[in-house]
Amino acid sequence: AGARVIATTGSNAKVDTLKKLGADVVINYKDDPNWGETAKNATPDGAGVDHILEVGGPMTMGQSLKAIKMEGVINMIGFLGGVGEKQPGVLEAFNNICIIRGALVGSRLQFQQMNKAIDACGIKPVVDEKVFALEELRDACQYMWDQKHFGKLTVKIDAASKL
Q: What are phi and psi of 123, to 5 degrees?
C-alpha cells in the first residue's frame, strides 16, 4: 500500500493492461530509449526509484542505474535483454550509491513459503490467457521470446502429453 508503481513495457498494447493492474506510470522502452531518466522524473521531486525489478539484465542495467534513487535497490531477476560487450560495472553502482542484488530460483522450501504467502495475502498472479499443450512447448517459448505474453505462461501436462 502506498507504493507508486512505474512499469516498463516494449508494447503499446500492454500499456492499458498494466494500468488496469495498478501501474501509475507506464513507459514504453522502445519509444523512449532514455526510459531510466523518464522513470526517475516520474518520482516525487525526481529523486529516483526506490526498488527496481530488473528483468533485462546487463543490457538494460544502465537505464535502471539512471532511474534508481540514492541508496535504492535493484533486484536483478532476469537477463531477457541478453549480454553485450558494453555493460555497467561496479563503478556505476558505486557512483549511484545503490544496492544491486541477484535473485535466482529459490529452494523448494522458499517456493512453499512463497505460495503460502500468496494464498494468505490473496495475491492473484498474472497469467497469460493462452494455454499451451506440452507438445506445443516450442511454440510457447517462441510466444514468450516474441513478447506476445502478458504475465506467466501455462503449459498443460497430462497423461497423454508427449514431447
A: -75, 135
- Please give the average pLDDT of every successive group of 10 residues along the chain, which has 163 residues: 87 92 95 96 96 85 94 84 72 84 86 94 92 94 89 89 70
Length of the chain: 163
Dist CA 103 CA 63 (whole Å): 19
In three-state secondary structure terms, 136 is helix
Q: Please tell me the distance from the alpha carbon of residue 76 to that of residue 100, in angstroms, as a whole number.
A: 7
Residue with cell 529516483: 48
SS3 151: coil
- Whether this model's pTM surpasses 0.85: no
DSSP states of 10-45: S-GGGHHHHHHTT-SEEEETTT-TTHHHHHHHTSGG
